[in-house]
Structures are given as structure tokens and as C-alpha cells.
Amino acid sequence: MKTKAVSTIALCWMVALAATLYAGAEAPAGRPAGSPKGKMPGKMLLGSLADRHGPVKFDHEKHVGTAGSCDECHHQHGGGQAPSCGGCHTIDASSFRKNVHLGRIRPCGACHPASYDAGKLDRPTLSAAYHRACIKCHRDVGSVGSDPKGCAEMCHESTAQAGAR
User: DSSP string of 12-48?
Assistant: First the structure.
């Protein structure tokens, strides 16, 4: 009987140790951990506005390697410090998902222009949010010049290409 109790205790300790080591495991070097839901996408098709524009073929994994961290594009995943969500958002912080680290959100000025009026807290459309973030970053790295020449030049499939799929 005593041997069974010792075996049970030893097994419990091994399970606890394995769980602790697994919980502390980090992502492979050079690659951030997955999304809060557990899986980071590779290549994806951004097509929620495809009824008006051709979809965008987006290599998420390549951009992660360039950006270096999730919060470069996704402010809900944390990063720098900001005084509060209320500086930009009018809803109560309790409305946010529980797995979002509210204290690690980047300052508004990291993405919003200096002319941003905090008194006008309109939420941008999905299209505007993508364009602001994507074009700003591509300008910063010099891959689009001062202004993209056309929607299908670099990002969007032409509507003819999209319709042919």
C-alpha cells in the first residue's frame, strides 16, 4: 500500500513538473509565440472587402519576421505602455477580452497621426485601418515610395483576377 502511495505522489510531481516546463516554454528563436487563440497564420487571403476590391494575398509569417513582434500591427497583443485605453476608446476596459494585456498597449501616437483629435474617437473602417497601417509601414521601409501608384500594383489582386478564381 505504501509503495502505491509513493508511486502516486511521484507521478503527481512529474506531471506538475512537466506542466510547469511546458507553460514556461518559449517560441522558437526569432519567432514570436502564437496568437492568444494558440495558432499564428502563415499565408492568408484578406478578402473581407472583396466585393469592392480584389483580395490581398498576405504572407503573415514573412511580415512577422520583418516586424519582429505582434504589437507592431496588432495593438491588442501588447507592447509599449499607454496611460489607459480610455485615451482612445470610449468603452470600459472590462469590455476587452480577458487575455489582452491592457497595460502593455502602445501609445496612441505610435500609430495615429499628430493631428489625431482625441475628442473625436471614431473607429476607422477595416479598410482605413489596413491602409493606414500597411501603407505607413511600407513607406517607412521604402517599398512603396511616397505613394502607391495603384491598388493592384503591390497589394490587391485586380477585380478581374479575383473574379477568375
Answer: HHHHHHHHHHHHTPPPPTTS----TTS---SEEEE-T
| Full set of structural domains in the chain with CATH | 39-164 (3.90.10)
C-alpha cell at 145: 515610395
Query: What is the per-residue pLDDT across 82-138, written as a single tens digit (0 to 9) for each?
Result: 434 455 455 455 555 554 555 555 566 665 667 766 566 555 666 677 777 787 787
